[in-house]
Amino acid sequence: MQAKSSSSLLTLFAFILLAWPNSSPIKIICEAISIKEATIQDLQTAFEQNQLTSRQLTEFYLNEIQKLNPLLKGLIEVNPDALYLADKADQEKKTKPHSSLPTLHGIPILLKDNIGTKDSLNTTTAGSFALVGSVVPRDAGVVMKLRKAGAIVLGKASLSEWANFRGLNAPDGWSARGGQGKNPYILSANPCGSSSGSAISVASNMVAVSLGTETDGSILCPCSFNAVVGIKPTVGLTSRAGVIPISPRQDTIGPICRTVSDAVHVLDAIVGFDSNDAQGTRIGSQYIPYGGYTQFLKVDGLEGKRLGIVRDPFFTFSDKLLEQTFQQHLQTLRQNGAILVDNLEIANIDAILNATLSGEAITLLAEFKISLNTYLKELVASPVRSLAEVIAFNQEFSDVEMIKEFGQEIFLASEATNGIEDLEKKAISSVENLTRNGFEKLMIENKLDALMSVGPSIAPVLAIGGFPGITVPAAYNSKKIPVGISFGGLKGSEPKLIEIAYGFEQATKIRKPPTFIP
User: Fold this and answer.
1) Which segments cross the bilayer (predicted)?
2) CA-to-CA distance for 104 and 158, rounded, in angstroms?
């Protein structure tokens, strides 16, 4: 079910205002399904018409969190200053013309708990008790931009601990601080990770907007499994400064929302140069189009787009209902002007999808140790100052951290590395060659605007090359678990990907609110 139009939403708010003398406005808002699925534009229209305040909206989300988070565990922590920030936003609305305020002004936003904030929150812990009490030197680069855009930091989302880079056995969506995140559609289903809480919270309407991070699949996968939209930007398009790192070659920060338009509004707010991530964002900033990204929200965005299909392994099905739905989607894409280039092959795809064979695993292990040690040393205060100290902490508090059950094999393997030596250089060269002779060659030779995949299966292809991707709700399988469709492109191709994703979303309108089936 899509968010209702602005006019129907305003009718709802008019009813709320009339009901205020005899009823709690927040209770009424909470019971109204349309506010739960409202878009950023719906909310801004209500703000402009003085039919909703940022405080009421924030209270609404806090109420939903109180009701749902004990079950879903999508959040680790709520910002104790959230209502103060909402009141501040409301005061600004009274003194400035609405047209002069940024699109995200007064909108609460949730941050994955590896994105640093210099405020009353417990900074950023990656879901681990090892970093509780640490103090960051400043807001993360993307948080600075969000605050400048007037957004309200609502709290920290749960995640797969250490962004799924600690052990081999921990389930997706689990962290020591946050517990086990649950898929709001089918509670027993995998919520995927590592940006699990960001996707869970948006899907279940505990917030409209969140940020996630991706090294390999950590935005595309949870968004696909939770029927929300996720944008994995070109590496360097968004700043990684102040974000607990894994790899400077592959890490990126992107929006998770319920609609493509909302995700694009957030993307516009967080892209750009950051002196604290100068090397990455200097290159990434060159891809930002004049006038921003919202200009590419075109209903006819599929017209003339060349979309590639690699049947094996990105369009294979074991679920008949899923296969039927995606066959219908292919027809819809054609009807809306897309040119489907079918039965393509990516050279050495088996190696690309195998982190050990491609060399990705070797490079990430070495890069993680270097990057994390640098991050920890720059903290104003921290219980741990190196990966070795994190490992020791986990061993000492194994009962709390569940190390005995979930392990820290990745940590141990990373600690055993000694920088970027011959083995790592060879692995990086392998990754680059596979990318150049695989995905890049396919895209260029076939003049493709995007490559498609069922779910997030294309994620490793995009990850090792630093390429962008967008996932959009596309289907529900025979077990009623959501499945997205992903579109990936070459570096800087966000404008085309947005046109494609928005065109597909508007032509299909698949998303519906969660069912909370046990």
Assistant:
1) none
2) 22
